[in-house]
Amino acid sequence: MKKWLTALPQILILFVFAWLGKVAAAFFQLHIPGSLIGLGLLFAALQSGLVRLKWVEAGAALLLSEMILFFIPSIAGIVQYPWMLGVKGLLVLAVVVSGTALVMISTGVLAQRLFRWSGVSEQRDSVENL
Hints:
This protein has helices at about 1-25, 35-50, 55-65, 70-75, 85-120, 120-130. It is mostly helical. The chain has 2 domains: about 1-65, no CATH class; about 80-130. Helix 1 (about 1-25) crosses helix 2 (about 35-50) and helix 1 crosses helix 3 (about 55-65). It is extended and about 45 Å long. The mean pLDDT is about 85.
């Protein structure tokens, strides 16, 4: 209980940033989810020092530890789409898995080439030989 009481003000700070993001998205008519804008605002506030990490760290950790509660409605919603549990669902899963694998492979190859091109690997090797 004490953990929740100490984390509650921190969770409220996180919700304020999420709310500010939603307000900004609605006001500027952006096609970006307000929660992402709020996350960006929180990141900017943390980087600039307006918000200190210790002000939100325990609240964020508590929300992350209880994240399964946020996914229960999504899991229960699958019941409305029984085709997701059949062959079509397996096809969707195959597309998602193969798409993720392609993105990971292409990102790795690109990062490796950029790493070689920048000469960082040569500098690292020369430092390791010292």
